Amino acid sequence: MFVDKVSINVKSGKGGDGAVAFRREKYVPNGGPSGGDGGKGGNVIFKSNSALNTLEAFRYKRKFAAEAGENGSRSNMSGKDGKDIIIEVPVGTVIFDSATGALICDMVVDNQEITVLNGGRGGRGNQHFATSTRQSPKFAKPGDEAEEKNLILELKTIADVGLIGFPNVGKSTILSMVTNATPKIANYHFTTLSPNLGIVKYKNSEEFVLADIPGLIEGASSGQGLGHQFLRHVERTRLLVHVLDASGVEGRDPKKDFDIINNELSLYAEKLKERPQIIVLNKTDLIDIDNKEEIIKDLTTYFEQKGYKVFDSSAAMNDGLDKIMNYIVEILPTIERTPLFFTTEEKVLYAPKAEKEYKIEKENGTYYVEGKMMRRLINSVNLEDYESSTYFQRVLKNKGIFAELEKMGISDGDTVNIEGFEFEYYK
Description:
elongated; 3 domains; Rossmann fold; GMP Synthetase, Chain A, domain 3; 8 helices; Spo0b-associated Gtp-binding Protein, Chain: A; 22% strand; alpha/beta
């Protein structure tokens, strides 16, 4: 099964905690603090790999976590940093934040890397908190918490030229004739259930990637017939080759088919209207010989009047493909690569908002102070120790928490709860 959209959960590594320790060496009667620092947690890194062409690897594994940093230890020994986790994805993968829809990264080149989540900083050991008046600090800082995020990965095929059209009009046959690709070919609808890619090296031209975009149908833009799964692979193509069944042997009307497909492209994304497009009238070998010239002339005139370059061919007989390839290699260098666009809503570049260090709420007469910084502070101090308790109060004052409580109307004797630790407030 071709997998081109998945949801996953990623988590960075927690920072290691700083240690509380003191020198206990022979002949050193009053050893100072010697708690080492915690190691940094591992990052979550995505890396593109051109050898991959599907998100199949994410079907059964949806959770990825980096390694936590080691805690510090005695003798000023720092903990080891946690290992990063590197998640490989195909070139063409777009990474979105599941919660906000924000674009995190578009992996458009091989070996591209992006750090999606940073590991937590390691906490500092008590060796860093010794002062002239506080020579034996009995507290250290814990490591920063791990970060966690739900992501959506979408694979949008990177191809220079895309073959579009209804099922069974000959796209796969054209691809097999002009590239080294070997797609399944059969005379029934939806033979192709995933984009097939082939490399074209035509005469002395530069190589380009040709994709057979799976068959589109009416209603594809609203998701019918796996429409969205197919349409997302049209977004990156520089040139569209619209293949039509000129023979009408299956009762198809190439003029009507053309309008239906282009309408679906426009409904999916208005910008696809601007994409250069040429017409290939295929299966001409199946047209009745008595009417062949007249039918081809009528269709050619019809589409040329709409401003399109038109070719007739019989891909099965390898007839007419040289003219098409000659034109593609001539025009392709003149077409600029189109930046990726997004179809459901305007996406913003990844710029995560910094989490406020704390928040204060009043409920039933108690003032609750919560947040990441508060959790780190509570975990870092020993409130039964005088020096540690003094440090705790000084941090609350320096961070403006006491001032904010006073603005909210706190009075002497009121209860303050900081991440579960309660005390009575006195100015």
